[in-house]
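QUALITY CONTROL LOG
STEP: pairwise intake check
CHECKER ROLE: data steward
CRITERIA: each record must contain a sequence immediately followed by its structure tokens, with no blank fields

ENTRY 1 OF 2
RESULT FIELD BELOW
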Amino acid sequence: METALLFRDDAYLATCEAKVTGINERGGILLDQTIFYATGGGQPGDTGNLERKNGDIVEIATTVFGSSKSEIVHVPGENAPVPEIGETVICHINWEKRFGIMRIHTALHLLSVVVPHPVSGGQIGHEAGRLDFDIPESSLDKFDLTEKLNALISGNHLIGSEWITDQELADNPTLVKTMSVKPPVGSGRVRLIRIGDVDLQPCGGTHVRETQEIGEVHIRKIEKKGKQNRRVRLSLGPAPTN
């Protein structure tokens, strides 16, 4: 059964009401709608809890996709009570973690702007993240990248989403920066994230509304992971002084 993805229209929803539509064979909880983002595209699934009418709290350890990209499975923590099918619950995500992920994810989009090379991998956390770039020879400097990133962030570019058809994406292959993760196609349309006039690329993840919300960031480390692979690690906050 399809789950309405409320986070896709409003990533700032921290709570919502939902109805339990099923429990899968592993005890995963299916809802008619959700604010929980499912693991995918390098972004981890949301954690949080489901509040039952009787006061029980169902801790959600992670969130994953079910049998399709439109079915979201909320994985309960060990020994958590399981709600009944048809029951109405109140969803609460771990907002502090989610907002950190939104800031890092958006910052990584900007990193792909200041390092204009194909992205071969990546990982998103709530305090730090990384991108791997396909670069034959590299003279990347972490202080230079940090300065360029913070300049883009302080420009306070507005961030929004728009949709194009699968065919429009096929006709514009340069929109896709990632080599290892391809945008989901087959449903007829693909979601794009636009950062002002700075960046436009396919993405199903959650982002802040304007770049200034990211706050200051710094490039923590640049690693050589292969002949043509440079891993750039980014963290929230200013660089440590020692």
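ENTRY 2 OF 2
RESULT FIELD BELOW
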Amino acid sequence: MSVVEQLADAIREAGTGLILVVSGAGISTASGIPTFRGHDPGAIWKDSDMSKATFDYFRRDPVGQWSWYLDRFSRVDDAEPNAAHHAVVRLEEWQQSRAGEFLVVTQNIDNLHARAGSRELIEVHGTSARLRCARPGCALGAPRGSLPRESVDLQPFVESPSLETLPRCPECDEFLRAHVLFFDEYYQEHSDYRFAEVQSAAARAELMIFVGTSFAVGVTDLLVQTAGARGRPMFSIDPHAAPMPAWQPVIQLREPAEELLPETVAILERG
């Protein structure tokens, strides 16, 4: 049996139960966005200090962090959804056509799943498409508030980065920050991360498909452990994946997601 047929059979066998797709940075490499810990030459943490993605760094050097994030946002803004993102949308439509459940949980902040058309989507690490106030409790800050990035004029800061040109909250005049989960923060700190829904999905998913993730963050540990304890099938699509420990019952498919996923969905759509 081919890899494509193996995955297609597992999807069929999930029936109308929840199919949970969990994506990481690897799904977006075909869109020109570098991974974080991957093998591609532009992988973020190969040439960047991870401390820059912390709230502590924001407090100490908001100008430095904003400059760093704007560089990342520019890469994201120039990118387009690739064949893997579009295949996930088709898979959602196929599963829902048989009255089944479907959910995408993405660790990416690049907004590409939403732009491709995914509807049942949780951006568990936040999104580049929004900003929020750095002051907790503000109507535009944690735990529930944010605002569209396009509604904020960032050009003064781009032209002359300084404390004076940092974008400020229109509600309370505090500095704005990226609407993303920093390394020194918790999933429960903002309702947009929808972490309780992720936990619920993990507890009832019939099938999990990981796409382009390094399994290096807390949410993937939760998902693997929960599905493993329930004996539910798990697949990982990643052409560069390192072997997983034997105690993690994840079937590894070392194929490019932008090739494997469209081929799999095409088989399902043919019936």
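INTAKE CHECK: passed for both entries
DESCRIPTIVE NOTE, ENTRY 2: The longest helix spans residues 62-77.
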